Amino acid sequence: MKLQAGLLAVVLAGSLVACGGSGGGTGDADAAAKARGPITIWYSNNAEEVAWGKQMVAAWNAEHADQKITAQEIPTGKSSEEVIGAAITAGNAPCLIFNTSPASVSQFQKQGGLVALDSFPDGKSYIEDRSGDVAQQYKSTDGKYYQLPWKSNPVMIFYNKKTFAKAGITTPALSTYDDFLATSRKIVASKAAKVAIYPAPSNEFYQSWFDYYPLYAAQTGGKQLIEDGKATFASDDGKKVAQFWRTMYQDKLASPEKYTGDAFVDGTAAMAVVGPWAIATYKGKVDWGVVPVPTADGKPATDIHTFSDAKNVAMYSACKNRGTAWDVLKFATSKDQDAKFLAATGQMPLRKDVATTYADYFTTNPDYKIFADQASRTVEVPNVPNSITIWQTFRDAYSKSVIFGQQDPGQALDEAAQKVDQLAKQS
Fold it and tell me: How many other C-beta atoms lie within 10 A of the C-beta of residue 82?
């Protein structure tokens, strides 16, 4: 989800001594890996995740009086990336953060702020046994895991059934670009909604994860923005996706104006690009349906890939009691705790066979079943140096050409790819 948490320097400076002081990883790493004792963790300020986190901490603490967890929500402010980066610099990061963005891992790793989870004897095997093949997307360029793939929110197209009915649409046709455009035009022409869909048109680096990237993943069968150190998005498929969105904006089916609030809940937009975390938000407010993101020629749903919108768990190098931190990480991502997390939040644990492992949950909560299937086909942001700068470079080109029409989208992608290739070469 698009969580924006942030930084208050005073809070950071005074917090979380139990996890490691100001050493920032300068101590004896081998000794720390075996050391056990009290630790501190951060988790998201999402209400459902806070509730899960509190019960997880209580369950651990009840059995480990000498290795207690002190937990808090991540400090609020501008962005979680800045919060964590500042804590690394100050040397007072917590042992574990259950809200680590995969896009930030390379930056935190470069700062010396992360512990390679492979350094624990069972680290690599635990990660890969839990998550399966998807774990490979989360390896860093040195081949190590500095994050444990934790949970995802596979991005799909939500649509408002009442708005569609108002436009005279009973069976939504949204699988191809042509169908999606035709449906969108019908919605707007009928004045059932002001726009068909309202992705955020702002220029933050992560906004492309909720308009361009899901469709790009679907169109390409699961490509990442960068593969083998080279940009992939200036391909024919990449340009088809950009042109689709350009048509949506050009024909006023999407809006370039910033919207305050939730356009889907408010009825301003008939559709939204979002993951299952939003279901709780829509409850009692929108009578919704959901379909996979479109492709140019309408691939079968079982072949559609999408953006994962994952948040992961990382261990930070200021942590002194890493032995305990590793045990807590495994406890918090166990089959039992993942079941509790799924029940509390509706978000998909990044583990093999979610649909069958938690079959009883999906029988009881059928609205989430389609997301469990989609969770097996997700694409992550590339784990490369300068990841955030690369995404910002892409977003700048996308905003200028696709959203605001100041340049041909194909040309903009070509130019951005050249810049991204240079950035990807830098360490």
Answer: 16
Q: Are 219 and 295 in contact (CB under 8 A)?
A: yes
The pTM is what? 0.90
Q: Are strands 378-379 and 306-307 parallel, antiparallel or unpaired?
A: parallel
Tokens 């150190």 map to which residue?
229
Q: Which residues are CB-contacts of 114 (< 8 A; sequence separation ≥ 6)?
A: 105, 108, 146, 147, 314, 315, 316, 317
* Residue tagged 């995969």 (tokens): 102
C-alpha span between 226 and 393 (Å, rounded): 13
CA atoms of 241 and 248, how far apart (whole Å): 11
Q: With contact defined as beta carbons under 8 Å apart, do 108 and 87 qualify?
A: no
Q: What is the pLDDT of residues 180-200, one digit of tens each?
A: 999 999 999 999 999 999 999
On the 0-12 / 13-18 / 19+ scale of CB atoms within 10 A, 296 is middle
Task: Please tell me the number of Cα atoms within 13 Å of 8 on its side-chain side.
Answer: 8
Q: Give pLDDT, residue 21.
A: 32
Q: Give me the count of residues in the chain.
A: 427
Pairing of strands 39-43, 96-100: parallel
pLDDT band at 80 (very low <50, low <70, confident <90, very high): confident
Do residues 335 and 175 make contact, with C-beta atoms less than 8 angstroms apart? no
The residue among 286, 325, 364 whose CA lies nearest residue 123 is: 325
Q: What is the CA radius of gyration of the chain?
A: 22
Whether residue 335 is predicted with pLDDT greater than 70 in this model: the reply is yes
Provide the strand spans (E) within 77-133.
96-100
d(CA 47, CA 266): 22
> Other CB atoms closer than 10 Å to residue 257's CB: what's the count?
7
Residue pair 316/22 in contact (Cβ under 8 Å)? The answer is no
Interval 197-220 mean pLDDT: 97
Q: Cβ atoms within 10 A of the Cβ of 245, count? A: 22
Amino acid code (one letter) for 136:
Q
Strand 39-43 and strand 288-291: the pairing is: unpaired
**If you average pLDDT over residues 331-357, what whole number do you get?**
96
Strand-strand pairing, 69-73 and 39-43: parallel
pLDDT at 76: 81
